[in-house]
Amino acid sequence: MPAAIALCKFVGTISLGLLTGVSYTLSTQSLPSLLTLPSATPAAHTLIQTQRLAGRHILALSSISAYTLAFAFWLSPRRLRHPYLLWTSLLAWSSGMPLTYLMSKTFKHQITTEEAMDANGEQIEIATRDRQWMEFVRMGISGLGFVMGVVGIWGDGA
């Protein structure tokens, strides 16, 4: 049983670290490079593809992280249950699912496949900047969760 708990903590923390890295890469490298494309149509298609693929990975990593950390809390004996596992699990969950939902409802500059053919450069820039801002927010939340997980695992071993 202790090996299963340690494995869940490890998998959850590593997944949260990968999620932080995905958000960091999107916000600092991938999305800003879209703004350098010479035309709005390829930029729109690339933005749609990036959002679709990144959304799948973000959802998978946040789900794996949230569920394995919550499972580690549930598996732990009552006297050894650390609340950092629940807090870290909550941060992992909030950095994935609700932010993606809120982003689709809050920002009106989502570009669909049909609109990509008629999109102008200003629409693409606004949509890219909105997505970049949400990735910065996601990076901060998941980064905080990752730090909490690493400190918690380190504290468990000390």
From TrEMBL:
Q: Which family does it belong to?
A: Belongs to the ATG33 family.
**Protein's GO biological process:** autophagy of mitochondrion; macroautophagy
Q: How does it sit in the membrane?
A: Multi-pass membrane protein
The listed locations are: Membrane
Taxonomic lineage is: Eukaryota, Fungi, Dikarya, Ascomycota, Pezizomycotina
From the record, give the transmembrane residue ranges: 58-76, 136-155
**Key words, A-Z:** Membrane, Transmembrane, Transmembrane helix
Organism expressing this protein natively: Acrodontium crateriforme
**Keyword Hydrolase belongs to the record:** no
Q: What is this protein called?
A: Uncharacterized protein
Q: Which residues form a coiled coil?
A: none
Q: What is its main location?
A: membrane
Q: Which GO terms describe its cellular component?
A: mitochondrial outer membrane
